[in-house]
Design goal:
About 25% of the residues lie in helices and about 20% in strands. The chain contains seven helices and eleven strands. A hairpin with a 5-residue loop joins strand 6 and strand 7. The longest helix is centred in the N-terminal third of the chain and has 16 residues. The protein is globular. The model has no long low-confidence stretch (mean pLDDT about 95). The structure holds nicotinamide-adenine-dinucleotide. The site of nicotinamide-adenine-dinucleotide has 26 residues, from loops.
């Protein structure tokens, strides 16, 4: 048995900021120029599915040109010293491309599509998903994204991981999107809680490293060596 500690890294949109992907808050309340309720809710899908598909098609093609940043790489390298479980709110695949080995996507994945009829999930090999693209059973495909107001199917799995952690590290999240932000409430009493964010949410009982993801991770790692 290894005596490595369990480190949960809980990432939000700020994790991918240094890869050129915009966070969701801090741009006048708009996400890449759109109101969230127009592109990331079931109501938006029901009233204007073309716009919703176009929005996620743009996010997907933007992702093709983005690369994992030093922060993503450092998280993967932490596996030398810790049992690392990444729980991400991000829908990009930058943790995967940086070679982290345990990644749970709480809010879905841009590179997957879901059948609106059967709920089955399919890898999306191309960047565009359009009206008329159907699953093998003939149902329209939608982005495999957990929209605002929808249930978070992976939440219970995430809670089980968090309950076993020794260190809970939040990186680049405003901790305002629920139920994801409530994960911190499941950390064991003995655990250490750390928030890496240049503009940290202040109300939580948590150690703060007020830096960007890559710089903050280097600060965390340098303290380990002391
Ligand atoms: N890359 C993505 O997949 C992506 C991008 C935008 C939004 N989203 C979705 O929108 C929701 C937004 O909630 P959220 O809490 O993740 O994000 P948020 O946009 O609410 O908060 C982002 C946080 O990142 C911080 N930040 C900005 N630059 C940073 C940097 N270089 N390093 C570290 N932190 C930095 C900000 O200070 C802020 O606290 C999520 O559910 C997510 O699914 C995903």
């Amino acid at each position: 048995m290894s005596n490595k500690k369990n480190l949960v890294v809980f990432t939000g949109a700020g994790m991918s900021a240094e890869s050129g992907l915009q966070t969701f808050r801090g741009h006048g309340g708009l996400w890449e120029g759109h109101r969230v309720q127009d592109v990331a809710t079931p109501e938006a899908w029901n009233t204007n599915p073309e716009l919703v598909l176009q929005f996620y098609n743009e996010r997907r093609s933007q992702l093709l040109n983005a690369k994992p940043n030093r922060g993503h790489e450092l998280i993967a390298e932490l596996e030398d010293n810790f049992h690392v479980n990444v729980i991400t709110q991000n829908v990009d695949d930058l943790h995967e491309r940086a070679n982290s080995t345990s990644i749970l996507h709480l809010h879905g994945e841009l590179k997957k599509a879901r059948s609106t009829g059967t709920g089955k999930i399919y890898p999306l090999k191309r960047s565009n998903l359009n009206i008329g693209d159907t699953c093998p059973d003939g149902w329209q495909l939608r982005p495999h994204i957990v929209w605002f107001g929808e249930e978070v199917p992976e939440l219970l799995n995430a809670i089980e991981i968090v309950k076993r952690c020794d260190i809970f590290m939040v990186i680049g999240s405003s901790l305002q999107v629920y139920p994801a932000a409530s994960l911190i409430d499941y950390t064991p009493d003995h655990s250490r809680r750390i928030l890496i964010d240049p503009n940290p949410a202040v109300s939580r009982n948590i150690e703060v490293i007020a830096e960007t993801a890559s710089v903050g991770l280097l600060t965390f790692i340098s303290k380990l060596k002391k």
